[in-house]
Amino acid sequence: MLRTRHAGLWVLLLVLLAACGRPETLPPLPEDGVILAFGDSLTYGTGAPGGESYPEQLQALTGRTVIRAGVPGERSAEGRQRLPGALNEHQPDLLILMHGGNDILRRESMDRLRANMAAMIEEAQRREVPVLLVGVPEPALPPRPPALYRDLAETYGLAYEGRVIGRILRDSGLRADGVHPNAEGYRKMARAFEEALREAGAL
């Protein structure tokens, strides 16, 4: 009896560990689904020729419509104000939220950044729009996102990608300047997001 109970506990532990390693799930995107890529210059595609931004490349990879809603130089407080209108206009099936880089570069309050990101996530969730959250790294060695991004993903149960931008910024061959990818960097970004969406079950 004791041995059976121990075996049951081991099975439960293994199930919990396996669950910890899995990404949060996303509902499958319909074939005619719309993805809203929302952010700042990294979403706009600064540093690459026209047609080479990550939303445009992700559209080619997924076969879904990807709306490029990036505004260079925008801070999270401005994005928070802009997002409701973008959601109203495009009625997306999925939101890729990648914001906060300008707050980080200007060393603005991380508490305000967290609050603005949380407000954007809650705006999407009120409308039942699933979110893939992307962590934007700090200018450090190695570049990695502040903990607030992963904390938000865990708090709100979001699919999360926090590695690809740091990897791009560490490789001078993938950068147009100190903070923006070139066309190949955006290609790697789009592939990473496609992989994240596949792992989460959206594709």
Task: Give an overview in words.
- It is built from nine helices and five strands.
- The protein is an alpha/beta fold.
- Strands 2-1-3-4-5 form a five-stranded parallel sheet, sandwiched between helices.
- Helix 7 links the parallel strand 4 (131-134) and strand 5 (159-161).
- The termini are far apart.
- Residues 1-22 have low confidence and may be disordered.
- This is Lipolytic enzyme, G-D-S-L family.
- One of its GO terms (molecular function) is phosphatidylcholine lysophospholipase activity.
- Pfam families: Lipase_GDSL_2 (PF13472).
Q: Short description, anyone?
A:
This protein is an alpha/beta fold and 203 residues long. The protein has 9 helices and 5 strands, in the order H-E-H-H-E-H-E-H-H-E-H-E-H-H. Helices cover 51% and strands 12% of the residues.
Which structural class do you get from the secondary structure elements? alpha/beta
Average pLDDT value?
Answer: 90
Distance between the termini: 45 Å
Task: Give the low-pLDDT segments.
Answer: 1-22
